[in-house]
Amino acid sequence: MTFMCMIACRIFEDEIVHLIRNDAQISGVFILDSPDAVGILSKLSENKIHYTVCSPDEVKNIVHYEQDEDYYILLNILGFSLDASPQLLKENVYEQVGLMSEYADSILILYGLCGNVLGNINRDFAHLSCPVHILREEDGEIIDDCIGASLGGRKPYLAVLKGAGGEGMYFLTPMGAAFWKEMAVIARLTNNPDNTAMTKIVFDYAGYTKVGKINTGLDYEKSFGTKVEEFAKSFDFRIVDIEGTVRISEQSYQRAKDSIRKKEGRL
Q1: Under 8 Å between Cβ of 171 and 147
Q2: Tens-place pLDDT, residues 235-265
Q3: Per residue in 212-229, pLDDT tens?
Q4: N or C: where does the chain have the smaller number of CB atoms within 10 Å of the terminal CB?
Q5: What pLDDT is attached to residue 267?
């Protein structure tokens, strides 16, 4: 069995479903059992993608006893709460890389620099027998964050900010919009997800007047438009439609897949 292990923030659920749907070489999908995987389980089911939920020990047994030479995806979804503490996020991601490396042929980390704590991940895991990848721009630089990934990198990101004419803009991807209240708590804008008055004070102080609705072309979050409108109404923001992309995720996935050498020539 050949395993690509993805260690990912929930914010990239839609991109993961997109990648799986568009790779005909995938023979099966395994998902580590976790409360944070509930969203992607639902989306995979809605898109008629078969999957198996399992524990790390069950994965080890599968790898040990199964002798086929097919290509499989193993998903390890981590929760939003890690975003509240860059150091905690790093510790958890590093721990999962160590665990996944026991049976992975390649590891793809769907995170960006995230407060610059993941910038040395390749150096820190250079000793592993399986290659470790992270979301990168076309020039090889690690992506800054999920917004940068959805916009296509630093240059498009800066171009959007420049086009805002000096007005503050808050960005929402489909997943960010679906969980904007929870994300406000994680960002410590408020301690109560329903206390939008406190969040508005912070936004007003920071000079935000717009919300950038990043259309990635993926439609797995059916309430995207409604949630953005709810957000904009809560803070008197103007909605700005922004064309997004999944190119960063696609290219990073392909690099991780191309690096698999265990079954050389099969992928």
Answers
A1: yes
A2: 999 999 999 999 999 999 999 999 996 545 5
A3: 999 999 999 999 999 999
A4: C
A5: 53
State how far the Cα of 174 lies from the Cα of 182, in Å rounded to an integer: 14
Q: Measured between alpha carbons, how far is 24 from 229 in angstroms, rounded to an integer?
A: 36
- CA dist., res. 267 & res. 263, Å (int): 8
Interacting residues of 181 by C-beta distance below 8 A, sequence separation 6+: 193, 194
Alpha helices in the chain (DSSP H): 13-21, 38-46, 56-65, 86-100, 121-124, 146-151, 154-163, 174-178, 180-186, 196-206, 224-235, 247-258
Q: pLDDT (tens digit, 9 = 90+) per residue, 1-18?
A: 899 999 999 999 999 999
Q: Which helix (H) or strand (E) holds 171?
A: strand 168-172
The pair of three-digit structure tokens given for residue 19, joined into one six-digit string:
């990648």
Element (H, E) at 132: strand 132-134
Residue type, 179: F
CA 56 to chain centre: 21
- How far apart CA 105 and CA 129 sit, in angstroms, is 8
Query: Six-digit token pair at 201?
Result: 């004070």
Distances (CA, A) of 190 to 26, 55, 87, 194: 42, 35, 21, 9
Strands 238-243 and 106-110: unpaired
Residues 6+ apart with CB under 8 A from 222: none
Angle (nearest 5°) at CA 215 between 178 and 204: 60
Among 62-66, 163-167, 240-244, the minimum mean pLDDT is found in 62-66
Q: Please state the pTM of the whole predicted model.
A: 0.93
Q: Please report which helix (H) or strand (E) contains residue 94, including its range.
A: helix 86-100
More confident position, 266 or 241: 241
